[in-house]
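Q: Got a minute? One more chain.
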Amino acid sequence: MIMETKKKNPRPVRSLSATLATAFLALSLLILLASGGLQLFYNIQTQQQAVSSQQQVVAQNAARSVSSFIEQNFTVLSTTVELVHPNTLSSAAQIQILQSLLANQPSFRQFAFFDAQDKETAQTSRVQHSGSIAVTSLVTKNILAQIHKGEKYISPVYYDAVNFEPLAFMAVPATNAVGEYQGTFVGELNLISMFNLVNQLKVGNTGYAYVVDSRGKLIAFKDTSLASKGKDVSNITTVNEFIRNPASTPTQGASLYTGINGAVVVGTYVPLGTPEWAVVTELPWQEAYGASIQVGIVSIAILVTLAALAAAVGVLLARRLAIPLIDLTSTATAIAAGDLKRRAMVKGGSEIEALAGAFNNMTDQMQGLIGGLEERVSERTRVLEKRGLELQSAAQIVRQVSTIPDSTALLNQVTRLIRERFGYYHTGIFLVDDNEEYAVLKAAGSEAGQLMLASNHKLKIGETGIVGYVAKTGEPRIALDVGTDAVHFQNPLLPYTRSEMALPLKVTERTIGVLDIQSDKTNAFDQNSISIMQIVTDQISIGIERAQLFKGLQENTAALELSLQENTSRTWRNFLEQNRGYLGYQYDGVTMESLANPSGEDPGTIRKDQPVTVKRETKKSSNTLAVPIRLRGQTLGLLNLQFQGTDIPQETQRVVEEAANRLALALENARLVQDAQRLAMRERQINVISAQVQQSTNLDILLQNTVRELGNALGTPKTFIQIGLVNSEPKKDQ
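A: Always. Here it is, folded:
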């Protein structure tokens, strides 16, 4: 509301216009009063200062152009280090990045990367001829020590031995997120484009510019024959002043001296700072001061004309300047209130128009930044959602791994889930064979993988493909572009593979297999996907080990059960042999009788695992239920029950089966008790015999007691004992 009131109130506009008009009138009177005798002197001085200022401005612009060229290339190196973090990549990945950067930066000829121990880890070059020097040979320990301190470095200019192009190499430090030194990134820069840039600089109509270093050597000049030889121009006044004070600008602006071409010139210089170079501009004195005389002639006429027009022009210009300023103020207030669509009117003179344009540009940038921030937030949200889904999928896979005891089913399920949940082109799991010679494909999640399984696909460990490499080294390997990976195995069944990731399956420190994932997109894997898949591979390894242990436990259990069955069969066979080969009783509801002979039922019935019902067609229909008595998988006997009627209820049959099972346990317990009693009786008999025998010390009486006690204890009809040595030597007559 305040700004709207000011727009409606014309008094501020009139006040500003009146002030400006008064200023113009006062300036006109001052010019008229100050003109006259001093006018010519002041104009000449002003012209000289203008020439000096113009020279300084030209030199500064030239210096900015050269410095911008250097800084832009420093920025290329620094940005690459910040975005890519080459110190975290393998040597192959570093070379791939350097080659891509070399293709996009024509100003550079070579790139190299040194690690934190100043060892070269990657180097690439576009130079083909053998006469050129590798940039890594120019990087000395002193230079690397400077880079260790976090400083940038650019070398002195040197020239290619073949095509004489001017060169310099640049180096920047690579640091981690906390600023710790991780390595050095070096690039060799071709300065021919800087030469062209210097040659294109316009210094008046006949002037020129050139670049020198802090030693006074000529670096860039339109006369390339002088620049290529590194001519010493330290005798030139401005160059000598720069050598003495390389960090400061000239104290007197432009000065008059003999230039590089031997002619009298007006020149100055501007130091670049880093590197310690300076841009020198020189303008022939005839052109530099030619306008001063003309200015002196027309000065009086111009002053008079200006004085006459000052009043009228002042009023008109004041109004023209004031109105746009008020409009700009209103626009700024509206934008500050949140109306980002509001724009200032571009009118009112070049300066005001420039101000309004700059203000509008600033508003556009601010609006773009806000919109870009919203887009970045949305993109970040999408990335987080994607990571959340990937983690959820990984968790589901891990849960599946923990619930499947069979290794074959486990591997098939995992490969299928990884391919379906993450959308990969192919997924396979290889296991190392017993001889540790081949990695054999055991499960695959694609149609091509099924064909490979059918053909018993296997890869030589340490020799064939990325899988063989990982199986040998036990280290993960990722090929973001298989076309540039020397280890990748081109499988004809998987023609669309563009990226491949292989992760080792480890139990403790032993590699038991490899998880192989292939995608039909380049650069399909990032650090997040690698971390997630590493978690999955760890769980797969645990699952495989658990399945193998479970299988071994099942085999041991089966062997134990078989041993128990054999022992049970053997002990009962011995027990029954001591009891006529069988034991049996029958009960008719009144009396209990011992079976003199085995049951007359079909002998095959006792060998069956399930109860058998036998129907008998007599005057009174009846059914006989034959239930085997089984203990530890062995059939000990048969329980026969005869029922009146035609059908036996299922519940009755279940009761009889349960009774037979409990009877088997009771029989086993009773047998064990009898065996224990028999062993105890035998031990007592042996003790009694030993006690009777040991009572006598006479040999005859001892033998008599022994044979008598054994006969009485064992109930044998006749017992005899004798002692004598059997002569084992052959008789002499034989």
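A: The chain has a mean pLDDT of 77.
Q: Perfect, thanks.
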